[in-house]
Amino acid sequence: xxxxxxxxxxxxxxxxxVLVANDIDPGYGQFHEDYRERVGWQSDLFxxxxxDPPYQSQGGxxxxxxxxxxxxxxxxxxxxxxxxxxxxxxxxxxxAVRICKPHGVVLVKxxxxxxxxxxxxxxxxTIDHALxxxxxxxxxxxxxGKPGPQPQVNLDGSPRRQVHPRSNASxxxxxxxxANQKETxxx
Length: 187
Hints:
Helix content is 18%, strand content 22%. The protein is α+β, with helices and mostly antiparallel strands.
């Protein structure tokens, strides 16, 4: 089950024989459940649940991010503030764990990023929330991609002054759902 399928980028190299594709955007996926609410699937249903939410907030102003990236990664649906976006991630993660079978795997992709000049530790906040759920952290992988070009001017045309370095890394959390609370080992 891919809870946040969008264009299916996760499945470009390898795709399971059966993939249930869900996306909040009706333009993508077979199903259109909102992962922030209780989705229509029963508990303990899927062997593996992939959860790749928009993990950066849009911010409170017009963003200098390239529109194509927003479209490709569903960022038009992300929250305005990092705190709101993290709340959505936490809701989706809890739902991913609920619909995953005991001893099944939940894959969660997250990222740390700069918002309004401050570092938002999305990876650590997501791990912190995961530790409240009936899961065991099996592995943490860092994916380093190619850095993209940074805009040279602001939206108003004034020269852009970059204060913080831009990260080109994201984190994949591999969580195993426990059959009961007694099995839960946090790390």
